[in-house]
Amino acid sequence: MSSTPKSLFEKVWERHIVEDESADRPAVLYIDLHLVHEVTSPQAFSELEARGLKVRRPDRTFATLDHSIPTLGPDAEGNRPYFTPQAKAQVETLERNTAAHGVKLFGWGSENRGVVHVIGPEMGLTQPGYTVVCGDSHTSTHGAFGCIAFGIGTSEVGHVLATQCLAQRKPKTMRITVNGELKPGVSGKDVALAIIQRLGFGGGTGYALEYTGPVIEALDMEGRMTVCNLSIEAGARCGMIAPDQKTVEWLRGRAYVPADYDAAAAEWLKLKTDDGAVFDDEIVIDGSVIEPMATWGTTPDQGGAISKGVPVASNENEVKALNYMGLHGGDSRSVAKVDVVFIGSCTNGRLADLRAAADILRGRKVAEGVRMLVVPGSEQVRIDAVAEGLDKVFTDAGAEWRLPGCSMCIAMNGDFVAPGQLAVSTSNRNFEGRQGPGSRTVLASPATAAASAIAGHVVDPRDYLQSA
Ligand SMILES: CC(C)[C@H](C(=O)O)[C@@H](O)C(=O)O
Ligand code: SF4
Question: What is the pTM of this model?
């Protein structure tokens, strides 16, 4: 008696159904982990209070401060340099709401504060087979651990706070297989940008993605998180990767993992797509031809290999994007001057990312006129980086070393790119004005960002590799 082969997504989905989907009603899903930050939670808590409801599972709800917080420390009187009164109010509101509802907040003073998608995995809150939600689109990051993880809106944050459940229609499934072996100097970020370029902006809409194949298996957990993080930039709700021995070893010993770790791990390792499982769509990519990538436009799919230069626009959208970016089709990527380099975010703000950047910067200087900001994704990343002396590598090179937060990825906290300036950023969004009004963003890997900081223009990092 053989049962129908199932995908990883279907297996995790089915385990969490509280009520089945029908023609006129979405499924009701149980949520294992609800992560909360200061920007998308205030109205949800107000709604809860207006209805006299409690947080259903405070033990499954964890909060942090990341988006609106300054990355510069407090002054002599202990005052934090909030960018706006609203930013300060958001922080204070979350402090109040979490205290009132018995929700754990990794706030100021916590050694675990950081960007929400960095700290979940780091503390082992994120575990294989979980459903993970957060009022934040890059929740897809947690899919790297074999979770169904996706962003929700503020009203849904309220639903989950009140019920620990969420009404959801089952998405279609797409398998993305990345075959072959990556060339030296090519990272998870380059793979992600290559996948998005292939899918196109919105090409993943309505799908849950599963990434698989030898290239994905060979990536470290940080690289896998980077790939899953960018799923949303192709329009997909979530992206996931089957847990393997690397996942198990990465999570071992982390604060919130089950006490009987080996028993849990044995269950996690069973979570994989069965042979013969059917997907609504399949894409196969040759990983061995992927080169260091950089975007040239104003959506994350408008990118390409750095060595290929700026493409000639083939439609109105591309003409508009190149104009905004101040780039010209046919030019080498080295023509445009870089003003700012940002290393950080939930895409590339982990220790492995900082190491990759530091390996290139060690003993070198950031080019004259370039401002470089390095922002660890979490307190733990910051502490580990300092212990390894990475902060010193950055500051010796002339970069600024800051406290953890979303920082220049979203520019709502005082860290931003000035109008008209061009930034090479390790984050995930390059929309017009994303890093500040009039700012222009080139998305790339930490190695590319670091090499570009030294060169003063976008370069292929392979020319800058040095053995540490
Ligand atoms: C502020 C938040 C709602 C937003 C998101 O959902 O992604 C932010 O994290 C972003 O990256 O744009
Ligand atoms: S680092 Fe950027 S992408 Fe990630 S959660 Fe913060 S603002 Fe969003």
Answer: 0.98
- What is the helix (H) or strand (E) element at residue 452, kind and residue range? helix 446-455
Output the ligand 2 site: residues, CB below 6 A.
66-67, 115, 117, 136, 138, 345-346, 406, 409-410, 427-428
| CA 151 – ligand 1 centroid, Å | 9
Model pLDDT for residues 111-159, shown as the tens digit of each residue: 999 999 999 999 999 999 999 999 999 999 999 999 999 999 999 999 9
Same domain, 15 and 163: yes
* Residue 450 predicted with pLDDT over 90: yes
pLDDT band, very low/low/confident/very high, at 61 (cuts 50, 70, 90): very high
1: pLDDT strictly greater than 70: no
| Strand, coil or helix: 166 | strand
**204 vs 77: CA distance, rounded Å:** 49
- 50 CB-contact burial (10 Å; exposed 0-12 / middle 13-18 / buried 19+): exposed
Please say which residue of 140, 168, 196 terminates a domain: 168
Q: Which domain holds residue 324?
A: 297-461
To the question of whether residue 165 is assigned a binding role by annotation, the answer is: no
Q: Which residues line ligand 1 (CB under 6 A)?
A: 39-40, 67, 136-138, 151, 410
Structure token pair of residue 215: 């290239």
Kindly report the CATH number assigned to the domain that includes residue 52.
3.30.499.10
ipTM: 0.98
